[in-house]
Amino acid sequence: MEQLQKILEEIRPDVDFASEDRLIDNGVLDSIDIIAIVTAVNNAYDVEINVQYLLPEHFNSMEAIYRLICKLQDE
Amino acid sequence: MVINILEWLEAAAKKHPDRIAFADADQEINYAKLQRLAKTIGCRIVDQAKRRGETWRNRPIAVLIDRNVESLILFMGILYSGNFYVPLDDTMPPKRISLILDTLNPVLVIDSKEQTKLQAENMTSYSELTQGEADSEERLAAIRANALDTDPLYVIFTSGSTGTPKGVVVNHRSIIDLAEQFSKTFSFPKEAVFGNQAPFDFDVSAKDIYNSLYHAGTVQIVPKQYFVLPLQLIPYLNERRVNVIIWAVSALRIVSNFKVFENCIPKYLSLIMFSGEVMPVKDLKYWQAALPEAQFVNLYGPTEITCNCSYYMIDREFADTETLPIGRAFRNTEMFLLNQETGGQITESGQTGEICVRGTCLAMGYYYNPEKTTEAFVQNPLQNAYPETIYKTGDLGYYSESGELMFIGRKDFQIKHMGHRIELGEIETAVNALSFIDIGCCIYDEVQEKIVLCYQAAESCDKRIVQGLSEMLPKFMWPNRYLFLEQMPMNKNGKIDRTLLKKTYL
Q: Could you say which of A14, A32, A54 has the minimum Cβ distance to residue B229?
């Protein structure tokens, strides 16, 4: 999770990822951020986030993103 | 001859009163109701002027836009009142909005969504302006009787290199020309449904609105979140039977980047146009593979020439390493290349020059900004017999062997970043306004598509810079990479050595 936090903060230094839990619903992240996050996560964790996972529930918080990564790594 | 775009609205309301004109995720409005509401808004604006003891003609009225039908209804209502609209995004930092409002000095600021935190003079709202009936038809008719096709239709603000955004003034004539040439050039479906992606404060959206009005079509406003997480984007286009899209290249690339067609393929799309940046061939191929029957069109042009001045219909296969041409000028528009050293016209292929445009498509200039206007809107240097204005785009191009115009880049520090037109100077002005920064300089990494800020300060302070910038600049202008330097490199002329910065850090 620490590594993920670092990745996210590099993309959006202005966001408090530890506490924000409505990243999509509140419009905190935009399409540019999502592309950057997905690309960075795919590279760092050797996973592939497919289009079917591009839903708010997987991106609303750092924890949700982390859960998605774990799920994809298990597969 | 059509002299006011409301004539299209009125023709559509007469012929297809029940057809949906505008729709968003939650609601829709047909042409008959649109006309009635727009007239009501026109009357209420006339009332407001009267109450202040004034008559407003060709005055700016700002609209705090959202991705909703109300914004579009307000645009039409403002035109009925004999004034022009200025779309503003109130999620921009207050400092930038006030810079714009200071330049604009609007007679009214209308909130389309009724929940703005913005404090401005002369504020009113959609619900206030839709009260009552269109009870002064004669006054609206009198306003129209005095209308000229050279009256402004909208002002759209774009990034300015000195830190102040520039308002591009576009009149009815230019938009009428745009829709007429589009309809002559492209085959729109019989009942055209436009899937609007561009925010209304970008002129890309004017193509959806006015091509649709011209064809008595429908504008479906696609919710913004579908471009953030695009899983539901294509199902939405299918559900709304969208058959035409005129999108930013960056929006089409979201689809190809995430391989969105693996999940769902558009059912109705037959015409796909894109602009704003150079479309990478591999992204285009991804779209073409899914929609082999659709017509794809590369459009080119800055806001100052009313959306687009040239087009290239994709008519052959391109290799991934090739660049798409920006093609040829629309009918009733001329584009030519000027040699930057000699000022002469370039006609042979392969030689680089500045792309210049002449014709009805030219905007009227920048609102309350004569300096910037005379820099870019100049007398045609190829003839001095009579006054004739051309627009110097600042873009560089050349003719290919086959005579197609090719775009290569900018002659100044303007960039295109994720669909946004940005003057690096505007970012630098904001950075240099921060008290803890000695000096900042932005360079653009075109390969990584990142705005890189090099700054000299007492210590590294990336986070403080972002916090500071978030109060002055919209998010799309924030740097994507921060480089702390103890000493900013200078060249012999005492200017920041950008060439060295680029060579060292990109």
A: A54
Q: Which CATH architecture has domain A2-74?
A: Orthogonal Bundle (1.10)
pTM above 0.90, yes or no: yes
Shortest CB distance from A30 goes to which of B262, B466, B475? B475
What pLDDT score does B212 carry? 98
Least confident of A1-5, B82-86, B381-385: A1-5
Residue B199 CA to chain centroid, in angstroms? 8
* pLDDT, average across residues B63-67: 97
Q: Do B263 and A56 touch (CB under 8 A)?
A: no
Domain spans of chain A?
2-74
Cβ–Cβ below 8 Å for B475 and A51: no
Does B418 contact A54 at a Cβ distance shorter than 8 Å? no
Q: What is the mean pLDDT of residues B283-296?
A: 97
- Chain B neighbors of A27, CB-CB under 8 A: 91, 224-225
In the CATH scheme, what architecture does the domain B414-505 have?
2-Layer Sandwich (3.30)
**In chain B, where are the structural domains located?**
6-313, 332-410, 414-505
Q: HEC string of B319-335?
A: CCCCCCCCEEECCCEEE
Identify all chain A residues contacting B470, using CB atoms and an 8 Å cutoff: 14
Architecture of the domain defined by B6-313: 3-Layer(aba) Sandwich (3.40)
What is the per-residue pLDDT across B321-353, written as a single tens digit (0 to 9) for each?
A: 899 999 999 999 999 999 999 999 999 999 999
Query: What's the topology of domain B332-410?
Result: Luciferase; domain 3 (2.30.38)
**Cβ B450 vs Cβ B478: under 8 Å:** no
Q: Is B466 in contact with A14 (Cβ distance < 8 A)? A: yes
Task: List phi, psi (to 5°) of B253.
Answer: -75, -25
pLDDT score for B354: 98
Q: List the single residue in B224, B230, B463 with the smallest CB-CB distance to A54.
A: B230
Give the distance from residue B191's alpha carbon to the nearest chain A alpha carbon, in angstroms. 31
Confidence of residue B494 (pLDDT cuts 50, 70, 90): confident
Nearest alpha-carbon partner for B472 in B164, B116, B166: B164
Helix, strand or coil for residue B406? strand
Which residues in chain B have their CB less than 8 angstroms from residue A68's CB? Answer: none
Question: Structure tokens of B397?
Answer: 């191009």
The values of phi and psi at residue B40, to 5°, are -60, -45
Q: How far apart are the first and last CA of chain A?
A: 19
Residues in chain A with CB shorter than 8 Å from the CB of B260 are: 51
For B130-160, write each residue's pLDDT tens digit.
999 888 889 999 999 999 999 999 999 999 9
